[in-house]
Amino acid sequence: MEVTTKRMSLVVGTLGVLSFVLGVIAENKKPASGTPITGKDVVICKYPADPTVALGYLSFVFLALSTLAGGWSLFYPYKGKSIPLPALFQSTSFFIFFLIALGSTGLAATMLLWPTITEQKHLSSNVHYNFETTCPTAKTGLLGGGAFLALDAALFWLVSLMLANNAREDYFYDVKDAGGAALKAEYI
């Protein structure tokens, strides 16, 4: 099975959509708070069973896989032809979208992991010595925002792939002369 830009874009897009869907479901399934149960000198928070932590981590894993596939697809030598990195990064639009894809991936990862780890901490540390506790959960909205950023990151990786493909075509552009021989025109 040959690796093509079309297949790689399908992989990146699918993984990004999976990350988005799992992140949105995790946000919607997250309980508003737990139920405080007062004991002797402690308050124990009882939380309803929910898949928020597992879905949050899965969303992050699919974001990471989408990012790895996106980054790999940019530098893969399609049809056995590799392009030197300086020639690829000479394209200003590619460089800008590459940086935006990296930045949005980092922000999405942060916004997915922060509430997921916080929620896991709340679930495991459910004994409190403060009788005023309200049995908190992770901040509402961060998982959903991270899910949308994960989708945005996948889309930016796809745009970067298209721009890398354009830079690759420009680098390997062949012009036929009148005698039928191919002349290589290098764009620097």
TrEMBL record:
Tagged with keyword Nucleus: no
GO cellular component, one term: endomembrane system
A Pfam family this chain is assigned to: DUF1218
Membrane topology: Multi-pass membrane protein
Transmembrane portions of the chain: 54-75, 87-114, 142-164
Alphabetized UniProt keyword annotations: Membrane, Signal, Transmembrane, Transmembrane helix
Localisation per UniProt entry: Endomembrane system
Keyword check for Protein transport: no
InterPro entries: DEAL/Modifying_wall_lignin1/2, DESIGUAL
Family as reported in the entry's similarity comment: Belongs to the DESIGUAL family.
Record protein name field: Uncharacterized protein
